[in-house]
Predict the structure of Lipoprotein.
Amino acid sequence: MKRYYVFSFILVLGLILGACGSPDNQDNTDAPDQTNQQNSESPSGNEESSVEPSEENGTDDEGEDTELAPGVDTVISSVEQLDSSLEDPEDVNPINEKGKTLEEDWDRIEKKVEESFPDQYKKIEESLYPLINEAKKDQPDIEKMKEWVQPTLESLNELKQNIMTQ
């Protein structure tokens, strides 16, 4: 019995130590997302170091706009796909999946929108968040969702126009 506990302890310890690879070790990362996150975060945890280069170059706004426009297009496309899945209210799985996709797409650009376009962000969140929350439910209210789709699309298209005019 004592051997069993020793073996279990060594096994657990090995798993814990094996999972604690350093972020600098590229052998531990297999997904490109992980390397992108490592590159975007400063090693010291200081956020100022990641902001300084773009401020020095004066291209902070231009970089945001070029990244933000395709992101808004992706969110608009996700809302349209969710809207098309509302045509068959009997099958809830596609609605749940499209709602999850919509949330993920919005999460990618949410901070940039909130920082660059705070008024537009507030307008979008009034219809987008209820739409996402309803889509994730086991029994979503299709009529409510249909009411939120159009204002969400309108506010996202307005945001897109604001991005293009800057």
